[in-house]
């Protein structure tokens, strides 16, 4: 235990120093990949971590996400990076976890419990014959009261502005005094950077030092993929008994299986008829010979939002009725058939959503939201497919979480390989003769689009869908305003690029700098 604890604490210290060096006043790019390689190497070297095939798979996925940050450097790649990092860390210290959602939750729990994990590991450290355990035993008499005082001070500050004012003054004086002391002894050290180092130390320790309680992993191990018929019996947990005091025994009054079947039968027949009417209207008016009229944009936008919500609700309704013993009811075949029919109709509804979004893109071009609708439609198809398997094969809700979690994670990494900002700009600018592009929107996209915008300056002023502040201007003034915005963006990029160091390097910034001649000496 001594060697293991010393190894983790030394790795945490090195990680804190590395974090401070890589990220202080830098953009997220190559530095994320370097930090991830350090975390992965430390995790695989850690004798407490089993180097299983599952861990290597999640490690490879995270390394891919870190590489995509360097290549594409978009918000989506950052999301992929953080999710894959949490999944990797969660699996590393809880390798019996089977769902990506629980592994992420385990990693977050590990980060939240950093102080407890750090203290637990520090108490096992020995320097020669000297043990740190008595020191931390004494320290807890100080830390716990301070924590309680901080919590109640925050509550009282929220309740009273006058109290909050005095607390703020006191903290300012204490902070200034502390800064003066540090500056007196360490004149060349930056107080803000010391705080940043402490933050990096805490973050690294949260990612490397495991949470000692494995209750989350144990709870997930009890979950199964296959539904089992539950026999009648009384739940006697303390939490259940506590709730029963306030509910008057309502928790025991479950619907009879036959009654639930009749309710489900009526519900699914009604919902099928209702959706059949909507799908018939969509097929006859939207699928064939649709001609936009009136407030076309608003009509498509509101219709798409409503359909998205209805598809989510549809999956929840099916999951509710087929959550338990109704799956084993002798007459459930009819209900199952109606549920399948409703799923098919919801797939038709998804096609209607895709057609609406297609019209939107055809007349107004691509945006992140319109691409998001396409992605959501794909996720709905996958979701309905897994719900179908759940009902047909009598699977549990755990099966849905496990299966969809894996698929969503893979899709997230796949979508991160696409440079969406550049794709949107190229698509819209290549169709300025047929679509009303929003030039303000295109100019607001990330710096990686600047070369393509600069090459197509003549097309930028052709927009007929700009914001109200420029809509009343003449065509020439409008074009000049848009080009001025583009010039400001280019100047801002040049300033930022010159200030960034090598740890902020990424392929997209490098390509943009090459285009504007910033890399040439």
TrEMBL record:
The signal peptide, as residue positions, is none
The lineage is:
Bacteria, Pseudomonadati, Bacteroidota, Sphingobacteriia, Sphingobacteriales
Keywords noted in UniProt:
Membrane, Transmembrane, Transmembrane helix
State the source organism's domain of life: Bacteria
Q: Which one Pfam family would you cite for this protein?
A: DUF4153
Bilayer-crossing regions: 7-24, 30-51, 63-91, 97-118, 138-159, 194-212, 261-287, 307-326, 338-359, 371-389, 409-429
Write down what this protein is called.
Uncharacterized protein
